[in-house]
Structure formats: C-alpha cells, structure tokens
Queue: 2 jobs
Job 1
Amino acid sequence: VDCVGQVRVAVVGLGYWGPNLVRVIHELPEAEVVAICDLRGERLEHVGRLYPGAERTRDLTSLLEDPKIDAIVVATPVTTHFEIAAAALEAGKHVLVEKPMAACSEEALALVALADAKGLVLMPGHTFVYSPSVNLVRDLIRSGDLGEVYFVSSSRVNLGIHQPDVSVIWDLGPHEFSILRYWLGENPESASAVTRSCVIPGVPDVAFVTLEYASGTVANIELAWLSPSKLRRTTVAGSRKMVVYDDTSNEPVRVFDAGVDLPEPRGFEQYRLSYRTGDIVSPAVSTVEPLMLELADFCRSIVSGGEPRSSASLGIDVIRTIELVERVTVAAGGRSA
Amino acid sequence: VDCVGQVRVAVVGLGYWGPNLVRVIHELPEAEVVAICDLRGERLEHVGRLYPGAERTRDLTSLLEDPKIDAIVVATPVTTHFEIAAAALEAGKHVLVEKPMAACSEEALALVALADAKGLVLMPGHTFVYSPSVNLVRDLIRSGDLGEVYFVSSSRVNLGIHQPDVSVIWDLGPHEFSILRYWLGENPESASAVTRSCVIPGVPDVAFVTLEYASGTVANIELAWLSPSKLRRTTVAGSRKMVVYDDTSNEPVRVFDAGVDLPEPRGFEQYRLSYRTGDIVSPAVSTVEPLMLELADFCRSIVSGGEPRSSASLGIDVIRTIELVERVTVAAGGRSA
Amino acid sequence: VDCVGQVRVAVVGLGYWGPNLVRVIHELPEAEVVAICDLRGERLEHVGRLYPGAERTRDLTSLLEDPKIDAIVVATPVTTHFEIAAAALEAGKHVLVEKPMAACSEEALALVALADAKGLVLMPGHTFVYSPSVNLVRDLIRSGDLGEVYFVSSSRVNLGIHQPDVSVIWDLGPHEFSILRYWLGENPESASAVTRSCVIPGVPDVAFVTLEYASGTVANIELAWLSPSKLRRTTVAGSRKMVVYDDTSNEPVRVFDAGVDLPEPRGFEQYRLSYRTGDIVSPAVSTVEPLMLELADFCRSIVSGGEPRSSASLGIDVIRTIELVERVTVAAGGRSA
Amino acid sequence: VDCVGQVRVAVVGLGYWGPNLVRVIHELPEAEVVAICDLRGERLEHVGRLYPGAERTRDLTSLLEDPKIDAIVVATPVTTHFEIAAAALEAGKHVLVEKPMAACSEEALALVALADAKGLVLMPGHTFVYSPSVNLVRDLIRSGDLGEVYFVSSSRVNLGIHQPDVSVIWDLGPHEFSILRYWLGENPESASAVTRSCVIPGVPDVAFVTLEYASGTVANIELAWLSPSKLRRTTVAGSRKMVVYDDTSNEPVRVFDAGVDLPEPRGFEQYRLSYRTGDIVSPAVSTVEPLMLELADFCRSIVSGGEPRSSASLGIDVIRTIELVERVTVAAGGRSA
C-alpha cells in the first residue's frame, strides 16, 4: 500500500476478462494499476495504450520480485491459476484469482494453506456475491419472506464462448454454484447431470444439472454456450412467495406474492388448497457495478484484514460442487435407462 | 352422423376441461352436442344452462345405449379413462379421450385393440399437435432449417392445480411429451428425473426431467404446479438456427438466426469457431383455436376414415414416456450421490 | 323481466361487436337473449346457430311491439343509434346503446329527455368504466396516491378497422375520452388536434389530440388504425407516483414510486431537485370480463333502479369532447405555422 | 495532428456529458486527449484522475493559445456554446460543439460563417445520426421498403434532469429533431405544441409536439422529464411496412410486415380494405458505440476534409425546428378552445 493508501496492483492475464479488471482498478480510489502482464505483446499494447501509467511486462517473475507491488490479480486460464497464485503468495503478494479459483479442490486447499501460512489475502473472484440483486434475493430468503425454499430453477445460457480446455460446467457453473451457496447457506448433498458436446468432441457445451440439498431444496440448472440469446434467469420458489432474478433485465428482481396456502386434508379423498395470486413487486435495486464492490472488498481485506465476502472457503465449496457434478455426469450417448 | 352430416356427440365429465369441449363442439359446424353427462348435478346444471338443446344425464349406461349418439368425448379423471372409453367402444361409439389416454400403457393398448376390432375411431386429446405454433416449429425442424437438433429445453409451470391422485408428471408431462414426439419423430431412449412433493406428501408437484434420444438430442423439461406465473417456454437449439416457442406470448414462435459455425481444429491447441448473430424473425402464426382443429379432425376421422393427427399410437408413446420417466425418478430426499 | 327474474333482451345489430353482447347476455344469469335482429340474413343465421333459443328477425318494428321483450341492446352503426334507440324508448323498452351513444350531442340529449320522460334506463356501452384495471387506476388518482396529475399520455392504436362513415376520432376516441372523464372527474376546457387521412380520402385514420383541463392536467392521445400491433398504453404522471395502464399486458397496471421531490429554489441560479426511483408494483387485478359487469349493471338498473356507472351523462360528455376535438382539428396538409 | 497522426483534442466542460467525450476520445486511436478544462476544480480533479496524461486547466484562453491543440470539444451549457465555439474558431481550432449547437439560429449561422472563413471543421454533436439503429431505419425509409411515410410517433421521456435555464424542448428535442431530419430529408412546414411546467414555474418539463411536413408526413413527439421509466420509442408507419425503433431494447429495430392494402372504392358505400399481418423481423444491429463513430468522423473531417455526417447544416435545421416549435407553443393554462 502506497503513501496515499492505495493498494498497488498488477493484473496478470489480459484476455476477455482482464481488461475489465484493469479498468475498474484504475477507476477505484483505493487502488492503483502499477503493472499489467501477459505473454502476448499485442494484448499488452492494446490494453496498455489506455493506461500509460501502468508498466507493461511479459515477465511474471520480475513482477513478483517488485517490492512496490502489493497484490496480484490473476485472470489467466484456469489451468494456470494454481501455479501463478502460488508463486505470488510465495512472493508475499496478496492474490485475487478469477473463478474457478483452481482446477481442482486439492489445488484450492493448497493455496488456502499457503495464504494462511503467509498471512496474506487470497480471494476468488466470485463477482455475483457482490451483485445488489443477488444480495436482495439473499435477504428475501434469509429473512423468511419466501418461506421454505421449495426449488430453484436457473438458466445461464448464451452464444459462446467455447474454450477447448474447459467444459461449460467449469466455465458457467461457478456463477450458479457460488450464488446458490451464498443464498442457501448449504452445499448440495447429491447431484445428477447430463451433458452433450455439440460442437467440439469431448468439450461439453450444454449441461443440465440437478442438485439436492439436505434442507429438501432441489435446484435445476441449465448451462449452455449454444443459446440464441443471453439468458440469465433464476426462479426461487418458496412456500410463501416466489422471486425471479434476471440479471439482464431492467427489473432484475421481481417478487411474486403467489403461492399455495393451507393444505388441509379433507377426508381421505381430497386436499383443499387455496392459491394466492397477489401483487408483483420489482424492488428498486442499486446499480453499482458488482466488480467495483468486489475489488473494493479485496482492498479493504488487504488494508484492514478480515475475510472478503467472496471468501476462499466459498471458492473451495464451488469447486467441490463442480467436482460432485462431474462425478455423476452422464455424457449423452453413453447411457441406458 | 345425422341427416345434415353432423357428428352427434356426448361429452362425459364436466370438470375443468369438459366445458371447453362442449363449447367448441357446439360451435363446430361438423358436430352437435346432443348430451352432457356428469355425476354431479350442479355441474350439469351450470354447464347445461348455456346449451338448452343438450340432454343432461348422470347415467352413462343409458347414454351409451342411445342410438342417436355417434361419439363420446371423455373428460373425466385419468383413472376412469379406461373403463369409460372401453364401455363406449363396446357400445359402438367413436371415442375421444382426454390426455393421458389411460393410466398405463397396458390399458392404452387394450383400448386400441378394442377400437381396431370394432372399426371405431379412438383418439387421445393431444391438443398441442393442432397448435399452429407447434406445427410451425415442426416444419422448421423437419425442413432442416434448424440443422441438427442439439437440445431442447422446456418449462411448463404454473400456479396449481394440485390433484391428489396424479403427479405433475402425469398432469403436465403429456403436453411436453406429445410435442417432443411430434417434433422429433422419435421416442426417448433413456431418462433421468428428480421430483419433489412440496405441498401434499407423496404427490410430486415439481419435476425436473432429462430425456435422451438416439439421434443425440437431449431435452430438459421442468414441470411445476408451484410457479409464480404461467410459463410455457421451449427452446430448440439446432446447429443452424434456434427457435423459441412461447405459448403465452403474442409472438409465439421466434426464430434466431444464430449459431456456431465452422469448427475447424487448428493444431492441437484451439478451435476456431465463428459465432453468428443474425436477424430474429417472428413468423406470422394463425390464431385458429387448436381445440377447434382437434375436434374437427375427430369428426373428419369418423366421417371419412383415416387416422387423426393426434393418433392412438401417439397416445401410447406419450404414456410409455411417462412410464420411462417414472421408472428412473428420484424423489428428492432419498438419494445419495 | 320474466318470472325467474331475468331481463329479456333483444340484440339489434350483429356486426363486429353484437355477437359479443349476445354471448355475454346468454351467459349472464340475470338476463336472457330472447331475440336477435339484423338486416342481413347470413348474420342472423351465423350468430343464431349458437343460440337456438333466440328468435331471429329482420323486423325491428315487430320486435319493439313484442311485450315479452324488456330491453333492447343496440350495436348498429353510429348514424342509426338515435333512430333505433328513440324508437325503442318510445316503445317502452330499456335501451343499452353502443358508444358513441349518438352521432351528435343534440341527438344524445334528445334520447336522455325521452328516457327520462318514459322512466326508462338509457345506458351507453362505455365498457372501460367497468374494467377492473381502469377502476384500480381511478382509485389511485382519487385517493391522492399519485398526487397532482401532471399529465396523461395515451396511445390506442391497431391495424384496422377502417369505416367509411366515421373517423378514427369517433371510433377509438370514445374509449379514451370515457376513461379520462371517469378518472379525472372533469371535462377538457380546450383541445388541439391534427389528423391525417392516409388510406381513404376524407376519412381520418390517424389523430394526435391534446386536451387541457381546468385543473392543469394535460393529455396527449394518439389514435390510429394503422399501427403494426395493437397498443393500448396510458401513462398517468402524478407529482407523487406514476402509473402505466396497458390493457393488453398480463400486468395491466404498474405503479412506479418515482418522482421529483422538493423543488427548493437555491438563490437565483439553480433548483435543487431530488429524483426518487423506488419500487415498481403490479397490483393483482381481477380478471372478470368488463362486458359481463357492464351488462349486469344494465340489468341491475332495470330491476332495482339507480343510474348505471356508464351513465347517459357520461355518454353526453364523451360526445361533447369529440365535438370539441373536431372543432379544433387541423387536417394535415391544410395548415401553415 | 501530431506525428503519429492523432488529432490532439481539448475537452471543455466536464459536467454530465463531458466525461463520456473524454473517455471515448481517450479510447479512439485517431485522437488524443491533451487537455481538459472546467471552471470547477473538483470536476478537473475527479475526471483528470483517470487520465493522468491530460493537462488540467481552468483557463480557456491559454488552451486556445496552445499550438499543440488541434481541436476543441465543447460540452458546456447551451448558453455558452456560441462564445466558446467562436473563440476557438478564431484561435484556429476545429470545433465539435454539443447539441444544440447554439442558443438560437443567428448564433449558429454566425459560427458556420466563421468556420467557413477560417477553413475549419465545425460539427454539432448529433450523436444519434451515428447510431446503427437510426441508420438502419433510415435505410428502410430511403429504400422505399416502408412505402410512403404516413406518420411518426415518438416518445422520449425519463425521470430528470431538470435544468433551470432550458426547457425540455431545448434539452430532449434536438435528439428527436435531428433523427427526423436525418430520416425524412425534409424540415417541418408547420407545428403545434402544448407544454406544461409541472415542477419549476416557467421551465416546461413536458411537451407534446406535432410536426407537419410538405410530403404529408405528420409526427407526434412526446418529451418529458417526469416519466417513471426511461422510454425512447419511435414508430414509423408507412404504407407498406412499419418499424418500431426503441433505443433501450435488446432488439432496437423491429420491422412489421403489416399494413393496409388496396383501397378500392366499392360503390358509394364501402371501401374494401385488406389488412396484412405478416412476419416481424428484428434485424441484427451493430453494437458499436455511436459516440465512438461520431468522434471518429470528427477526426476524419479534420484530417481528410469533407463534411461530417452530423453537419453544421443539420445543426442549424435542428435549431430552426426548435424555434418553429417555440413560436407555436401553448403553455397549458393560457389557452381557450
């Protein structure tokens, strides 16, 4: 942290997501982009042009040796997360690593152990737990307003972006699994999943996942790189109310005062249910950019201590859920009833 | 068929759906409602008031003996379908029976054998195969416009109506399974399903179903009686185009000229995919009421012969799909990964 | 009124709207369709087929002489309203006449005088004042929830139906003007309007109307027969809240807790305004058919006395508003700035 | 223009819009932000922090004397446009001035004369003529696809932002009037308008404007600072097709193949019209930021010569339309029919 209290950050990896991180750190009063790093010269050139104050380098090692850098933000391919994050922690740097935090839970646990040993912040970039909409839904669940959570149904689909080294479950799954963990406060006990590799053989680009929780809640999650239009829509059906969260809408959270009341058995024959259809409310939601809040929380953890909301333990839970899903996955074509 | 060529129909069962059948038969030039039948006097009174020309009776037997009745339309609870339809066929009446056609495939097969032996029309009421929108999507699939069908994702959810003797799979499933059979021209080879009985113990009101087909197509189907708002939305993702069918929208069919092109392996490392995002077209769709077309097809089969589009074999396929799904269903709470 | 308390009604005019009136009267417990009347045999045939209990006639005179008829519902072209309604009143029949009630305010006043002299119900068919959504908005305005009504902006547009003898102002205007009268409780003091006759020379099919009220409220109304899709959307902007009423939506009333607060002049230079953007609420709205409520109100007035909500004085106010608008209308092409 | 071909720009005025201009110029390869200027130190501080390479100054005069500045971008209040733009032109700088270009047409003409005399680029910032959606609609109109343009109906409403020195017509009007000028290729011949000053006395915040063109086209435009939600929706109804342009939608242009065909007079009595309701198409629209294209066009004009698309003559036409509208405006409260 420099003399004016700014955390001095280097961003490693300038692919799809990295430039967003650079932009937000640049805008954040609490931080300063002191260096950007990528193996590709053209990416350094392209991104660096807008931030003349940031050093450009292809050499990660020299970066880690630089004493004027407090923290490293890692936005490289998943398979490299462990190696880069571990090296940064070894070098005494705080680390924010994009989701998923590592390529397996063993790697993630090792990173946590290393960070603990060094007394450094290690934070996965689960941006959605900073989303005002996600937090509003969490409040509705936690306050009991929704009643018992019967089920969650979620679609996260778009067109692209295929990655040859990672399935749609590793790519889009962390968003869903981090949100569910954050909302429900529990991890799934069991799962089932069907995937298909439509475009590239062996690279699943469509997945239908079902999760079951000890509380009784069931969740159905559809992940796809092949859908015509971006869709991020999650329904949480509770015994009292239901809520629809749609990240791409102008009204991202809609609360339906609708439900089934008073199941009273009437003799052996028939239940008398009463269906309520009440008002629909779209609460006002803050439009603050979640990535801004995430990076501010990272800086706060470095400066003041305390676990960030997107904690390393959340990062581990997410990877364990992915691993659970992968263990039970049936690749379409190879199954019989 | 009477002297002016009208099929003389009696409608049995005046619950939720029966009155719609009475109304449409009354409006149809090819048919005439000569009798309505229900065990409940107040339903006979309530519905009969609007159709003073129709005889009202609680006595099914006398109805089946009435020589001026050509056809029986059965809209009673599922468990009674077999008995009533079989009696009607035995009495020489053509039969339209609501979906699902019977409570198990053995019953359905027995009805078909009986109808064949008697030379009578036996038709399940799979209304959706008469929907102009469903047929438009079928044409897009069959013509090859969509390319290979990668996956289908469908939600059919609403608030209510719980029935104590039937699960959401038997209640809402026939709609989905008949549409999929009609579109894809094949039956699923395998399935998985998770259900939960949220309101009435032992009566599943939420089901997440995955179907796999020999062609490679996978389908994810969400059925629920507990959702805040009626939703009937099906996405069919093909290799060339994608289509979204939403029964409740003013633009029920939307075709997205979007997809992934030209997967060309480039060395070992990376595929070069090209994503298209083109025009979106909402084709003009006829607003004819599908139930009107269904009942006209029933009359046409009776008068001119030939199988109705909603054929008995479609009815059997739908029941077999339900039975496949039930065999693999996991009720949430009783499974470990 | 017959021995079971049903009002015995004859419907005159079986064009576009008449069959809806016949259907609803047939369904209404309080009334009975005893006769239908039209000059065109094929319309009598077409509509009468569904209501075998109703007498069919082309002879209005004999209908008016029939003592078993209590009330006449008039759904003929506007230019004939006066003559038919007057004859019916003279013959001692209660009268419901479609909107606009007559072709000019003099005719409307003469009808009212005649009904008063005879002690009969005379009711214009302003269906929208029975709409649950329209009444919900009225309650919001009348209760002060919206604050001062700054402005109303309304679009009522569709494709068709051109009528050679009437402009879009006479055809679609009565809907808007009756709603505004019902909401605001006042008649416009002044107006301006521009029309264009796009398709048939001399028959305005597009009109932009502005109304000003003594209270300060201004209203902008767009009427067109030429729009691509049916649109009925009205915004009422108040000083406290705003409401959007969209008749074609699943959420027909939406209340926006948004507004401008506390205009405090700050020196000569600048006002300090505070903009609120709060929750959006879609209140639950009854789905009862307004036409059912309208006809029940007509029957109630006949049986129990008392003015119907769609009163003759409302009918006169609507015609006077049309006449005000017509006086100030500029036909595009014939004006200079 | 510097040695690497970049236009060296200073941005004057860092209020609401200025920072956007600075950001885009910074990102644009063809330009460079060499200085930012505002009278308020805190704005210089706030904006300048993100662009450490840009000089910060409160002194416009020194800026205009600086030979390393090629162009001035003016984003100050409207009343200051003339003075600042004139001084910049006098100092030999190219000028981009925000819309409206000046506070009256005399000022705008004087600026044009000065730019011509000096051989400098003078460009108003009518961003919408660079919008891919606006250009797509223009192509539909110009190609004859829509047929004759019957009418245009437009709403541009939002909550805020009241400005004490300017009416909603001067604030939101330039967007509408520049688009209409660009689409229709003609200026209005006559107009009518009603305004109301709901919040601040004497500052109209709602305006209903009607424009008439020599071609017969009529336009209705609703401008308001008081609406619950941002709405930018324009319908262009042609004799062949209709198009809806909605700037805030994911499908900003929708083309309706709907219309009225073949008005054939049939005797004296009735026209036989045929209504078409065909497909609806949402063409793919480029998502390039219009402001980026606008500033690139400004640079291109400076380097290569040639009039920018947002030309000074467009700027003058827009101001003349505002002046026409103001001449005919009736302020609600002061008019009788």
Note: Residues 265-271 of chain D have pLDDT under 50 and may be disordered.
Job 2
Amino acid sequence: MSASLAAIGGTLGDIATPALVLDLDEFEANIENMQRLTEAAGIALRPHGKAHRCSAIAKAQLAAGAVGICCQTVGEAERFRENGIDDIFISNVIVDPAKIHRLARLAMRTKVAVCVDDARVVPLLEAAAREAGCTVEVLIEVDVGDHRLGIADPQGVAALARNVSNCLHLKFGGLQAYIGRAQHERDPLARRNLAYETGVAATRINDVLAATGIVCPRITGGGTGTVADDCDFAALTEVQPGSYVFLDVDYSRNQLCEKSVRFNQSLFILTQVVSVAAADHVICDAGLKAFSMDSGLPEVHAAPGLRPVRVSDEHVKIACGGVRPELGERLLLIPGHCDPTVNLHDQIIGLRSGRVESVWAMDARGASA
Amino acid sequence: MSASLAAIGGTLGDIATPALVLDLDEFEANIENMQRLTEAAGIALRPHGKAHRCSAIAKAQLAAGAVGICCQTVGEAERFRENGIDDIFISNVIVDPAKIHRLARLAMRTKVAVCVDDARVVPLLEAAAREAGCTVEVLIEVDVGDHRLGIADPQGVAALARNVSNCLHLKFGGLQAYIGRAQHERDPLARRNLAYETGVAATRINDVLAATGIVCPRITGGGTGTVADDCDFAALTEVQPGSYVFLDVDYSRNQLCEKSVRFNQSLFILTQVVSVAAADHVICDAGLKAFSMDSGLPEVHAAPGLRPVRVSDEHVKIACGGVRPELGERLLLIPGHCDPTVNLHDQIIGLRSGRVESVWAMDARGASA
C-alpha cells in the first residue's frame, strides 16, 4: 500500500521521517528473555499481538517458542490468519452477530478461542460454529480486580462455563483473568501484590468450578508489568504479555526489584529537525500522527538535554539545554505508549549496527473492527 | 486494502464497529457555510487536507469552490496528487533532500507550493526544481506569535524572500502566517484579539517587504477557530481551515460570539456495547486505536447520562447515570480531537437519514513522511 520508507542496507540518514524503527538486537533479546522466563516457570507464553499488529513479529515470537498469539479483535485475527498465524486467542468479548460469524468462519481453518462474559452471547456462538461446522473454544472473562469487563462472582462464572460446555460446537477453554491496572503500578511490591491478588481471585474461581466438576484447561492473563510475578506465583497457566517486545516511556517508569525481569527499549520514532529558527528550541517532524499521547510526552533517546515540550499534529517542539541539534539532524524518540503508537504506522524498520536489516509491514494495523 | 466496514444502503446496525462515520447533511452544510463565509469576504479558501487525509473530501471542498488544498507532508501531497488533486500547498517546511526531490517531481505534474524558514534549504529546492525542469512556489514561514517554526524578524523574512526570488526555478509565493494556539482559545474576544494580532504581524512583515519592492502574492493562514475573524480583518488573502468539516469535543468548547460562525459536529466514532457485566458502567469496543486522546476523552453523542471515564487500547468504560444501554447497542462518540482520530481509520462511512450513502477511503492516511 505504502512506498517503503527505507531501503535494506541503508542508514538512519536514508529513512524518510517520521518512521517507526526497531533496534533488532534489543527486540530479539526481549523475545528470548521472555521465552526463557516463562519456560523456567513452566508457564505457556502466548504473546499479545495487539501490541504490534504485525505478523512478522508474531512469527518471531512463535519461532522462539510461544504457544500461539493473542489478539483483541476479529479483524486482527483475520489479518494474522491471512498471514500465516494458526493459533489465535481473541482475549476479548465479541458480541456482534456479524463478527461472531466471521470468527466462526476463521475457526474452520485455524484454532480460534474467544471470551464471553454474558450468557446471551453463547447461543450466537454455538449457532455460528454449528453453521460453519467447526468448534470454537470459549473462555470466561472474569473480573479479577480491573472492574472493566468480566464476571466477578464465581457461581456466575460456573453457570456460564456449564452453559458453554453444554454446547455441541463450543469447547470450554478456561478463564481469561487479566488485570490491566496492575501493569503500570510503579512500585514493584505494590505491583507484585496486585499480581498476587489476581492469582488468588482466579484460583478461587477455579476452585469453585472444580468443586462442581468443571475442569479449567487454562487460566490466562498477565502482562509485561507483572509477568515475572505471574511466573513466580504460577496461579496462571498461560501469560499474554505484549509490550515487552518494544517497551515505552510509561513502562520505563515502572520501578524494578530483585524479582523483576528487565526488558529493554527497542522501539523508537525516527524524526528529523525541520526548523531551528527559534533560539530556545528546535522543531521536529513527528507529532500526534506519529506517536500516541495518551500516556504523555515522548522522550528523546540518549539526549538528556533535549526535552519535548509541545506536540501538534505533525510537529514536536523540543526544548534544548546545552547541545542544540542541527537542521536536518535525526533524533530517536521513545514513545509514551507503544501499542497505540505502533498502530499509527504501516511499516516498522529493523536496524542492526546502524544499518536497515528489515522492513516489516504492520499487516494487522487498523484492524480494530 | 481493508474490507469495507459497511455496505451502501445499510443502517448503523450493519456497520462493523468501531468505525468512523460522517453525518453527510452536517458535513455538506459545513462545507457550504465555509465557502459562503470566505466568498463574502473575498478571501480565498484553501481547506487543510491534514484534517481528513481523504481525497473524496478534498474533492467535495474543491467542488464547492475552494481554490486548492493544503497539506503538511510530501507523502500527503503525493497521495492527493495520485487521487486527482492538482493544486497543493504544503503549509510546512520540508528540509530533507530526498523529500525535496520527491516534491520537485510532484511539481512536474501539478501546482505545488511549500514553505521555508531557513536559507540553507533554498539551494536544495532550486537544485531539485532545476533537475526536474519545473517551478516550485515557495512561501516564507513567518512566526506571527506561535513561537514554533518560522521567522519573526521582518528583515530576515525580506532577505529570505529575495533569496527565493533570485532562484530561476523557484517562485516567491508569499507568507505562511498561521497561529495554532489561537484556534483553541475559548473566549471569543481573546480569540479574536489573537487573530487580529496575527493579521497585524503579517501585515507589518508584508509592509517591510513592499518597502523593498517585494510583492507578496498571498498571505495565508487561519484555521477553524479564527476563520470568521480572519475574514473580518482581511489581513490574510487566503485561509486554510481544516477541522470545520468535522469538529470535535475540543472545538465545541470554543465559546462563540455574534461575530462567530457556527459549524456543526459531523464526525463520530460508532461503537458497540460489548459488556454489561458491571452494575455501574458499560464497556464499548472503541479505545486508543479508534480515537486520539491528546485533547481528552470523547463524549457520547445525544446521551447526556453516559460519560466516558476510562480508555484502554480497545475499550472505553462508560459510566451510566439513568438510562443504561443494552448489550450490543450502538453509540456514537464525538472524538476529543478530529485530525489524529481520523488518521487512525482507513475508511469513513457517510450516513444520510440513517442509511449508509458512501464509504470513502482515507487514501492519504498514514502518509506522514
């Protein structure tokens, strides 16, 4: 769709800005470290594709040993499937009949699981799976403290699990027990406590199910912030971190403790200085359409004197203390929040030792519906 | 690239969510009102394509009488040109030699103008235009109070204008005199004052140029917030509003006075209630990848009791006072900021009298480089 922003073998100076770039050494180390962490704990790793929406990255995660991938939308699942991913868990509730039919059609050709938190959706899923002649795996979305979606009452979860199990074309897959607010808790002990409480809440629900004879094939959840704790407590049987491949300013503010595992910043926005007309700042060519501002301003990589202070659609104003970048100079920005930043770009440019090694299509970008 | 999210003739209930939708009656009224306002003032209207990045919308603006369009990047200009737009002003500075060559190649086939605020860029533009055998129109980016990019000193502007005029393949096009911070000033008199001061600053520069024999073919600037004042003062000869076709929550907070012109909300994010598991809120399927949060939370259209309170990548939590939406119900959200929200979507679905009348490709979406 888009012309390539970079040629293989080129340098940073050859890349059209703004561009999403990936430090391949750090990226690969993050994948390897996450795989090693989860394998040591005996917990399945199912990385979250919502962080990247890029089948090349999903394939790198699978090649390292991940059991499959997560995504959040039927559109993402379709794009991942088209691009060769064949074990996909939509870690989200899907209620629209048309989307449920698309999901069932996907399940004819690949392993697909999805979540429910409302009994009225179960007959729609069953009818679509029957019509497609396939089996859809269904997990119950449980509320383990996020108070967003999901069922908190264990008896309610058990009733819904029985409901699913009674359907000929559905297979009860277990519990989706994710707690988003724990991921960005700054204090490592408070974060660990939230992860612990999530595990306790999920285990309590699992115990109620077990007491009524329902076996939970998996309990899945966790994210980049809590994954080391999740592996330590082992209440979850599967973790679904996403951001660890990239990191961002927000994750860098999570403090670590001796139980934590460190991942490194691999994702950057390459930008160029386009105006030095003012004395106290420079203007670069990346703005609201190059990085997301929901978690605050980006930072300039490896340049402590440079401070982004104001962002507009296509520009960021960078206050200069000490060294002042030149007109045309390229800077690397660390985005505030990786997932919605990555979703702005059609390509990610992989760099190693200062050279462009890969240009990957973000082939599930924009697939929100 | 993407499957269509809606079929012509369908209803809101048939559209896959989240989706960008356009109330065609309001959209057309906005275009007509802006055209009428500028024509009455004798000021050229060159709408800003950065707001929509959609050639179908640009064509609707041109059909109503706009003199051409603005954009911010060479990538946008290329996409607009590919899709039939032939008078394009890049109201931004471009300094990268590779981009300057792309720009000159575009100017071989269409009318292209661009801004400079640094003398070092002029020989690059001249060389590229000479090589392409074409003429590029160059405006001087002046700082009329935004303190972002641009030159504030009139003598500096005059020197740069002479520099441009001395180049065989460049044509001096005038002044780009935009003031972004005025557009969102809430108080209508304060906003009017900022527009006035912008006009005074631009006129002062123009007078210095005139005194040295330099004729300014146009003075362009203004935006949706100040356009009525800009038309009233007539210091600018061309205005470049963008958001007026859509509006957003942020613009709705601008107070109006008797000198103001009212535009109406035409842009919405269609979303669906996907969870009613909690007692005090519902969860809808639009989040950070469906609307931009740089200007704050979206609002729910025509539903005063419903209040978005928390946003994550794919969800918005909506607190319910009084009436509670049903599972599967569709709601229309008004985004906080239209430009970066529109840039998240590949399609915009036009609705009239509750029916889908058009599905337009956002064919310059993502063209930031």
Note: Chain B touches chain A through 67 residues (CB under 8 Å).
